[in-house]
Structure formats: structure tokens, C-alpha cells
Prior knowledge:
Helices cover about 50% and strands about 10% of the residues. By secondary structure, the protein is of the alpha/beta class. The chain is globular. One zinc ion (ZN) binds next to helix 1.
Amino acid sequence: MKCRVCRGPAVVDVRRANANFCTEHFVAFCTEQVRRAIAEFDMIQPDDRILVAVSGGKDSLAVWDLLVRMGYRADGLYIGLGIGDYSDVSGEHARRFAAERSLELIEVDLPSQYGYDIPTGSRAARRTPCSACGTSKRHLFDAAAIDGGYEVLVTGHNLDDEAAVLFGNVLRWQTEYLARQMPVLAAGNGFPRKVKPLVRLSERDTAAYCITTGIDYLVDECPMSAGNKHLGYKDALNDIELVSPGAKSDFYFSFLRRAAALFQEAAHAGEDQDPIGTCTRCGAPSGADVCAFCRLVDKATAEPVHLRPRPRDEAEATT
Ligand code: Q46
Ligand code: ZN
Ligand code: ZN
């Protein structure tokens, strides 16, 4: 196996590009994919201050590393979700990555700052862990970007993530979601600009990028992800990719180029685009008086009736 560029020994193969690369040229390939994504979708301006949502996994550390290598000013934001050992170890990976490169890592901790963790919060709110987690992370990412004066919020969603979400939305023809499925969401209504510079790289590419460049990332999956529909969609797309290399990329990018605008036009037809209001509690943009995050915090931190100690338990506890 020889590198497509220098003909030296290759260490990574990229089947959809029908190419093999040595470490140096694989890094160059990944950098070029990110540069093209940023340019094609007008994601980031050279002077922008960037906040990267960092989980300690391969994608978020890879995108942070790539942006810094490319000369962008990028800080990280890590949210402690209180998911047992998984959160402890993911935090360690994020902190070590930042410390080794002298990068700024902002930290928010759900249990100590908001009084709940994802497992108990999702049970109390009767929502799936990923739903409660998504609401929490979206709110805290947006708030940190706005409060910190960052021009753009970067997430590590890769091609596999975006193709799986598209697959799920197409399966059920969820047209409102299809209208929002772009790698760039413009700032507005109190929300920061959000971009996904890894959309041209697969999950396999970001793992290979971390391994070849020595990034020590958390390999374990989140223990709460079991039953997540998107994992099933990813498996289905991987089966298709095996028999038809490049199909995943074609599926996603052909949607963006040929169909996304149609869903956006349909979604906005006849709409006035009125600005939405703000949450009366936290000031975040919200269509309701109290935003989804504050409602979740209320439920997650309310003492559940069935868990209140019975008089006998109280007596036992005080003796
Ligand atoms: S962290 Fe949160 Fe993910 Fe875990 S609970 Fe689900 S959404 S799977 S990216
Ligand atoms: Zn080479
Ligand atoms: Zn709120």
C-alpha cells in the first residue's frame, strides 16, 4: 500500500477517495477536507473567535486540533454531564489535550452548577437520556458562545453523523428538520452561528487522524447511547457503503446541493420570521415564557414524590 502523493509506505486508506496516504499526506488530506468545507459553506472568517464543543472523543479533539493547526483562534468548551466514569474520563481527555497544547478550555459542570446529572435528569423529566442531554448541551453551548463573545460555535459532527441524521429525517420525511439540516446555521434571534467543519470527513477518518497525530481520545461510547436510533442508521449506511463506496457522501452532499434549498423555501414560505422572545428565567432565546432548558432543570431538580423518604426512613436516617 503506497501513499497516493509521495509513493512512500501508506498507513491509512480512504476507500471513498480510492486513495492511501502516509501520515503526513493523510493529515494534509484531512486539512484540505476541512478547508474545503469551511470555504464551500462560508463557515468561518479568518479573524473569528471560535468556541469548539469538546467531549474528549475523537471528533471534537480532531476538529479542535485541525482548526488550531490551520491558524484559527479556537477555545474549547467541555460540559460535565455527570454520566459516571464516562464523564470523569472524558473530562480528563479534554483537559489533557488542552493542557498539552496550551489551549483555553472552558468547563461547565451540570451536577455542581445546575444540580442534576443526565441519568437522574432524564428519569425525572421522563425523557430519553439523549433527549435530556441534547437540550442541556444545546443550551449551555449557545449560552457559553454568546456570553463569551465568540463569533462561531463549532461542533465535531462528521459525515457519518450527518448522513445518519439525514437518513432518519428522510425515512419519516420530517420536512422541518430537513430544512434545518445544513452544516451552517446562521446566527440570529440570540443564537450563535453554528458550524460543522468535519462534514467531509468520516468517523473512520477522524479516528485515523487522532491515531496518526498522537491525540489521546476517549474510545468508549457513552453508556447512555444504547438504543439510540442514529447508531442503527449509521450501521445501515455502513452496510450500503461496503457495497457502494462513496454512497454515504453522495447521499449527504447531493441532498445539500440539490434538495436542501427546496425544503428551506417550503419551510419559510409565508412566514414573517418574527424574532422569538426570551426566557423569563435565564434570558435565553425561547418561543415560550420559560425555555426548554429551565423547564428541564425544574423537573430534574424537583424532589421526586416517590423518592421522598417515608416517615420511617427519616427516623432511621436520623438515628
Ligand atoms: S453524551 Fe448525551 Fe451523547 Fe450520551 S447521553 Fe446521548 S447525547 S449518547 S453525543
Ligand atoms: Zn505521502
Ligand atoms: Zn431559560
